Amino acid sequence: AESAAVQEVLRSREVLSRVFGYDSFRGDQAEIVEHVIAGGDALVLMPTGGGKSLCYQVPALVRPGVGVVVSPLIALMQDQVDALSALGVRAGFLNSTQFPDERRTVEAQFLAGELDLLYLAPERLRLESTAQLLDRGKVALFAIDEAHCVSQWGHDFRPDYLGLSMLHERWPDVPRIALTATATEKTRDEIIERLDLGGARRFVASFDRPNIQYRIEPKNRPERQLLEFIRAEHAGDAGIVYCLSRNSVEKTAAFLNENGIGAVPYHAGLDNRTRAVNQARFLREDGLVVVATIAFGMGIDKPDVRFVAHLDLPKSVEGYYQETGRAGRDGQPSTAWMVYGLNDVVQQRRLIDSSEGDAAHRRQLQLHLDAMLALCETVACRRTQLLAYFGQSGQPCGNCDTCLTPPEAWDGTVAAQKLLSTVLRLKRERGQSFGAGHLVDILLGKKNPKVLQYDHHELTVFGIGTDLRDTEWRGVIRQLLAQGLLAVHGDYGVLTLTEASQEVLFDGRQVRLRREPERVVKPARSAKP
Ligand code: ADP
Ligand code: ZN
C-alpha cells in the first residue's frame, strides 16, 4: 500500500509539471492532493488566488474516472473548459445555457470515459437524469467550488447548493473536496453541516495578503479622489474599480478616459459581446483599468492587478476581502483603496430595508454591514481587524493606513449628545423628514430657508455645534450610524433614535469616535524601474 501511495505522489508531481507546467505545489496543495487521491474528503479554505483549482484538477487527472466539479459560475464554465483544453486536459460542462445537442455530446463523452473533468451547474444535479448519468459513468471525485454558497445566511447563498448533501448519500465512496475563499467560523460550520463533511480533513490556509496595502479614506469627491490616487501611485498600472451601480460604472469609466487613463466598463447590463471584449482587453492589455460592478472578477486570473479601488461600500467583509484579493496575485506590492462616507451607510441601510426576505434575513445582512462598517471606522490596524474577522490573529502590519497614520480616538460623548438631542427635537415635527444636512445646519446655526421655514433657529439646540466643522459633523453622524447609536429610514434618509441612543442621552453612555488624520501615505510600491 505504501508503494502505491508513493506512486501516486510521483504521479501527481508528474501531472503538475507535464500538464500545468509548474515545478512545485504551493502551500497545502501537495497534502490536499495526496489526501484526495487517496480517497479522503477535504474542506479547503484558501483565499482567492491561493491556488484552489489544482487541488481538485490534479487528483481528477490521477484518479481513474472523471472529476465532477460543481460550480455556480456558469458564465465562466466555457472559459475554464477552454483554458483546460489548451493544456490538453479533456474537459466539458453541463449547464442551462447549452443547446440540447451540445449537452448530449458532453454526456456521451462522459459515458465513454473521454473526459477528465466535467463542470456541472448545481441545478443540473437536482435532475434525476443527471444523477443517472453519473451512475452510468465513473466519477473520480466531486469538487464543490465556492462551497460557501451553501450557507443560507452567508453573503452569496444559492438554494441549489442545499441539494448537494445528496452527493454523499448517493455516492458514498466518491471523495468530495469542498473549496471556498470565505471562511468565517460560522460559514465553515455551516458548510460542514449542510454538506455532511464532518469526517472531512480541513485545510485552512492563511488569509493574510502581506503585499496588499489596505486604505480607507473619507469620501468627498470620489471620482477626483480616484483620479488623484491613480495618477500619484498607479499611473500605467492595471486595476479594478468597483462601483455599486451600472450608471456609476459607466460614468466613472468615461471620466477616467477623459482624463487620460484607459478604462473599460463591465456590468451585467452590457451585452455579452461587449463584456467579453472588455474582459479580454483587461486580461491582455497592459495597464488597463476595468470599472465594474461586483459581478466582475470571480475566476478572473490576472496576476499583475496593481490596485483595487472601491468607490462604494461593499456589503460585507467577505465581499471586500474577495474583491481586494484580486490585487497583487503575483505577490508584488499592491493597493486596496476605498473611499467611504455617510451616504454609503445611508444607501446600504436603505438596500437592506428594501431587500426581499424575512426579518431574520435582513438581520443577517445588517450584521454583515456592521462588520464592514467596523472595519471602516476602526482605529486599529486594518489588516489585523480583517484577519480577526476570518479567525486569524496577528500583529499590527505597519503598512495599512491606520498603522502609517494612526487616527486619533476622541471622546465624542458630548458631540453625540448634541446631535441626538437635535434628532429628538425634530422628531416632534409631523409629516416632515429632515436628513443629515439639515441637522448639521441646525447644529452650526445656519439660517437657511428650510431652517427658517420650520422655525428651527428657535430650537435650543440651534448653533450649539460650532465647535466642529461641517465635515466633522458628517463624520460624527456616519460613526453614530455605524455604531448603531442612530438609525436611518426611508428614501430621504430620515435619521431616528435607537434604544442605544437613549442610553447616550439619558444614561451617561460614553461614545468613542475616530478623528480622520491628515493623510500623507507613502505609495505602496517602490518607484518603477
Ligand atoms: P483560486 O481558485 O484559489 O482563486 P487559482 O486556482 O485560480 O486560485 O490559482 C491562482 C493562480 O495561481 C493561477 O494563475 C494558478 O495557475 C496559479 N497557481 C496555482 N498553483 C500554483 C503552483 N503550485 N505553482 C505555480 N502557480 C500556481
Ligand atoms: Zn496595519
Automatic annotation (TrEMBL):
**Where does this protein have coiled-coil stretches?**
none
Q: Which organism is it from?
A: Nocardia bhagyanarayanae
Domain Helicase C-terminal as annotated: residue spans: 222-373
Please report the name of this protein according to its UniProt entry.
DNA helicase RecQ
Signal peptide, first to last residue: none
UniProt cofactor(s) = Zn(2+); Mg(2+)
Which domain of life, per UniProt? Bacteria
Enumerate the UniProt keywords alphabetically.
Answer: ATP-binding, DNA damage, DNA recombination, DNA repair, DNA-binding, Helicase, Hydrolase, Isomerase, Metal-binding, Nucleotide-binding, Zinc
Q: Can you give the residue ranges of the Helicase ATP-binding domain?
A: 33-201
A Gene Ontology term for the protein's cellular component: bacterial nucleoid
Q: Which reaction does it catalyse?
A: Couples ATP hydrolysis with the unwinding of duplex DNA by translocating in the 3'-5' direction
The record's comment on protein family reads: Belongs to the helicase family. RecQ subfamily.
What Gene Ontology terms for biological process does this UniProt record contain? DNA recombination; DNA repair; DNA replication; SOS response
GO: which molecular function terms? 3'-5' DNA helicase activity; ATP binding; DNA binding; four-way junction helicase activity; hydrolase activity; metal ion binding
Question: What does the record give as EC number?
Answer: 5.6.2.4
